[in-house]
Amino acid sequence: MSGVWLKPVTVAEVYGDWDDVAVMAALDRSLAPRGKESIFDLVGSLGVRPGDVVLDIGGREGQHSLLMAERFGCQAVSVDPVRENNERGREIVAVHDVGDMVELRMGAIEQIPAEDESARLVFARDMLGHVEDLALGLDECWRVLASGGFMVIFEVFETPTLYPEEKRQLCADTATVPERLSAANFEATVAASRFSIESREILGSEHVEASQEAGTAPNYLLQVSRLRRAKDSLVAEMGEVPYRAMYGNALWSIYRLIGKLESRIYVLRKDVG
Is pTM beyond 0.90 here? Predict the structure, then answer.
């Protein structure tokens, strides 16, 4: 349905004879949103098997690599360009039950530290927004994938309700390349690559909605309210960059909840031959 109502409501209608108890009950009813783990169901459906190599690009501390190694018995390689992420990740991996199945490597999607055709699957979760040269990154993913392999991409894109000034500030505070927020730009870049789009699914707000219902994520509205109201003192306490990162990330999740941003999952395929 359209997000714009053409006919204004009247005061009499707003305060009129409608069942507010029933309306509140409807708002409290869960719509059974899929959580973050649903992306791993998709990975499993692509036939990842024990012994397969999965490259987790932008893998941060390797948590997703550990999860995939534990769930599928695969060999996972987490590649991340941030030294601190790799250092923390090595500590986490070292004490994990399947830590021997996960390797952390310093590197970026534009120059992946992996051999040609060495991976069954490339996993890129919520990281392409930071990539300046997406075409080069896709070329590298193509190079490291075996024929018939897949690339699973979870990414967040803008919708028409995100205003230009909102986008400008959000990208500035979260180190996001503005062009990466465009789904049309992303699909055009894929079309110009050697990949084909196997599937596309729009999740919208589901992951954030699920985490809010489960109580596993912060109250982002409350965070933003506090950050706005105590800006000067909080900047003095934590510094400008941490303040902006926390504000931008909280606002990012709110924008996903209210539809200014939407989550999508793409599966790209490296065709055989």
Answer: yes
* Residue 272 neighbours by CB under 8 Å, 6+ apart: 147, 148
Answer with the residue of higher pLDDT: 160 or 17: 160
Longest dimension (CA), the chain: 69
User: 88-97 — which CB contacts under 8 Å span 24+ positions?
Assistant: 88/61, 89/59, 89/60, 89/61, 89/62, 92/61, 92/62, 92/63, 92/66, 93/62, 93/66, 96/66, 97/70
- List, as one string, the DSSP characters of 30-68: ------TTHHHHHHHHTT--TT-EEEEET-TTSHHHHHH
- 21-43 CB burial, b ≥16 within 10 A, e <16: eeeeeeeeeeeebeebebbbeeb
- Give me the sheet containing 261-269, strands edge to edge: 102-106, 75-80, 53-57, 119-125, 145-158, 261-269, 196-204
For residue 2, the model assigns a pLDDT of 52
Would you give the DSSP letter of residue 239? -
What's the pLDDT band for 184 if we cut at 50, 70, 90?
Answer: very high
State which fold the 11-45+108-269 domain adopts. Answer: Rossmann fold (3.40.50)
How many other CB atoms are there within 10 angstroms of residue 117's CB atom? 14
Q: Name, in order, each residue with C-beta under 8 angstroms of 136's C-beta and a sequence gap of 6 or more.
A: 110
Task: Please state the rounded mean pLDDT for residues 51-72.
Answer: 96
pLDDT digits over 213-257, tens only? 999 999 999 999 999 999 999 999 999 999 999 999 999 999 999
pLDDT of res. 40: 95
Domain ranges of the chain: 11-45+108-269
